[in-house]
Design a protein that fits this description.
single chain; about 325 residues; alpha+beta; Tetrahydropterin Synthase, Chain A; 3 domains; three-stranded antiparallel β-sheet; 10 helices; about 55% helix; elongated
Length: about 325
Amino acid sequence: MADVAIKSSIEKIVQKEMETVFVVIVLAITVIMFVPAAQRYLSIILTVLGVVVLVQILRAVGVINEVQEYERLAVFRLGHFHRIAGPGWIILIPILERAVKVDFRVQQMDIQPQEIITADEIRVTVDTILYYKIKKPELAILAVKDFEETLKGYVYAALRDISSNLTLNELYSEIEKVNDIVKVKIEPMVQDWGITIVDVEVQNLRIPEPIQQAMHMRRQAKEEWAAAQYQARAQRTLIEAIAESASKLDQNALSYLYIKEALPKIAQGQATKLVMPAVFPKLPQGVDKTGEEAMTLNLSGLLNDEENPLKKKAKKE
């Protein structure tokens, strides 16, 4: 795959350089034909044109290489490593020398999803992103055949080793620690390659659907248990407040409140008979005659017309 990508990029570069050469030639011919004054400097124009065309051809065939500030060339002469060149324009001896370009910037490697098994024997699929930087390009090229593929294998092995010692809950809760452990495990292995591991991110933990449903039900049960605890505490606070208020009332006040609240509710029931106390308690202090009459009025609907004291009083008047 890497060779195919390199060949494709080389073909694009050659095509671009040849297009530039074609444009320069067409421009020079146009100037010579339509600008009479340019014919006086025909030799100079042709010389400049020839130099430009030659440079572009050399760039197209790889003799002249343009190396950016963040890039370096590992130059091999007759198969032996010769030097690290760049940045700038680097001239290679045709046939004798070849070069491999290396990027010094931080690179991101997306590792394909991998299935791991936790300590409680649950299969989890994880996605991993690795950030690395090449410090010594000659080692990255000479010490390992394909450092990216080898680096992926090290990440796989480190994840399997770590997950076998963690349960699923620990893996979820300590994901940042897992990232650090993977980094620590693979760093010593890649030091001989001239590569530095910048960061490791394990993300997108995917577990089987039945396990997900069980975890959701467990979390929901915990939330319901917490809600019940809060509700019970609220009820206890309410009961304590009522008990504290009731402790400050005497027996007459309690009886009055009971009759006032209970009798209207009893009257709304389906029963045809009501059992009334023989003696109503004396109203507590602070309840005036108007309140006594109002209480009697509230009870009047529960009595027969003949036994209603208000109606008897009205008849006598």
